[in-house]
Amino acid sequence: MLCSQKQRIMLANRKTRKKRLRLMMDVDVGDHNVLLVRCDGEYTAIGNQCTHYGAPLSTGVLVGHRVRCPWHGACFNVKTGDMEEYPAMDSLTCHKALGQAKRVKKMGARDPDVKHTVILLGGGCASVICAEILRQENYGGRIIMVTRDDLLPYDKTRLSKVMNVKSDSILLRRMEFYQKYDIEVWLKKEAMSIDTDRKTVAFDDGTTESYDQLLVATGCRAKELDSPGAELKNVLMLETPEDANHIHNACIGCRTVIVGTSFVGMEVASYMIDKASSITIIGFSELPYLKTLGREIGKFTMTVLEERGVKFYMNDSVTEVRGKNGRVKEVVLKSGTIVEADVLLVGIGIVPNSEFLKGSGIKMDSKNYVTVDKYMRTNVRDVYCAGDLTSFPLQMIKDQSVSVAHWQTAQAQGRIAALNMLGKQVALNTVPFYWTVLLGQTIRYAGYGEGYTELVLKGRFEDMKFLAFYIKDDEVVAAAGLNVEPAVSAVAERFAAGKVITKVEAESDDLSWLKLPTSKQ
Predict the structure, then answer these.
(1) In Å, what is the CA distance from 93 to each residue of 75, 98, 102, 104, 174?
(2) Contact 118/212 with Cβ under 8 angstroms?
(3) What percent of the chain has pLDDT over 70?
(4) DSSP-based three-state secondary structure for 96
(5) Which residues of the chain are under the pLDDT cut of 50?
(6) Cα-atom radius of gyration of the chain, to the nearest Å?
(7) Which pLDDT score is estimated for 515?
(8) CB under 8 Å to 345, separation ≥6 — which residues?
(9) pTM of structure
(10) Which residues have C-beta within 8 Å of that of residue 144, sequence separation ≥ 6?
(11) Beta strand 208-210 with 200-203: parallel, antiparallel or unpaired?
């Protein structure tokens, strides 16, 4: 009796899995690749390519009314095509408009009768998204976005992955877009102070502008190397497309030394392997990515780069940079090792751009990150903050305050700030999702794994195909994967739904809910 009941359950589970596999498929309609979805007994057709980087959504994760991209975690409503989670910015076309690859959600423009101004400080993705959401919600006031850059907001995630990138090719929106929707963009202008009593911002050119509501999204900057000789030529940092191009050209055929073993340092090393004459990486910790991807994946990535000739000096630091004729020639380490160098790239962390907030009354933590609530509000009325310089409550870890300097998180915060400026009372509920590229392979990560105590590994590092579950208090708090799409997106969907993934579930041989591929895609 028990045996037959078990068999019936197993048969029902197999039928359920087969049914789910038929819920969406890609089809070609003329010259267009379309995602056909059956949801609530109805069929809908939307674009199949994610509007972020073009991933096929048919290989993603379908939960309820939304599909999550297998590559970078963007989400779309399958009934309307509307974008519901970043890093994508545009929505998908529906079956009524297949002649387009993507579409911008309907947006309003400025109403001259509305005497209200929102100032967005910073030219990153948080400000762009905030401006767009305001217009999508028919805000008719004045929107001013201010950036110290001389370039319109761009996709900064590309800089360490494609270093010869042309700045024009990575713009988030072109000037025509901002003009069409009456979003003012002030370039090469920097906020110097804020008077929250008078609601004014003072800028570096001596001008002052009044606001009714303010978004602080000035982000972070690269931390400078504090060692003698750091001012020498060819001691470089990566912050802009111009920097990326300079580093690309400077490293070709040269001895390249990189200080720092997190995303910038490791991605630049990977990019330069077949371009520089030699690559040396200096790390403060025992292994790369120790505070982000963790010990196990850090060791794996280090081994992969070592096999391609990259030399590592770990648990070490730079004490002096020596030069000749004003250019770097040697890097002296704390251990006494001297490394010859033609180029020294510094990627040792970030510093929040929050100095101008001192005296404003806006609360910051001990590291000068701006503290906000789940509505992206600071302690000062009508002042909001979003992006890398925020310390915010992350819902998936019971509203513990964290700082997450990743692209998709900043976008989500920009959206929440806009909605709450309009009195919508919408709380931030996003799952951090990021990715890093090494030697053409993309490691994807979802969740918040800081403080994890155990790693459950599916697959093998040496096969370049694995899924890692980060465990804390017998629950999965994050996941990272390589060549197992859409597994990490499936984990992100579970997190987004507030569902617990237990250690027992992670260790189980039955991972059908992850939709793991049977072969490398």
Answers:
(1) 14, 6, 5, 9, 20
(2) yes
(3) 93
(4) coil
(5) 1-22, 97-99, 519-521
(6) 24
(7) 62
(8) 236, 237, 238, 247, 251, 256, 257, 258, 259, 265, 268
(9) 0.88
(10) 117, 118, 119, 120, 184, 186, 209
(11) antiparallel
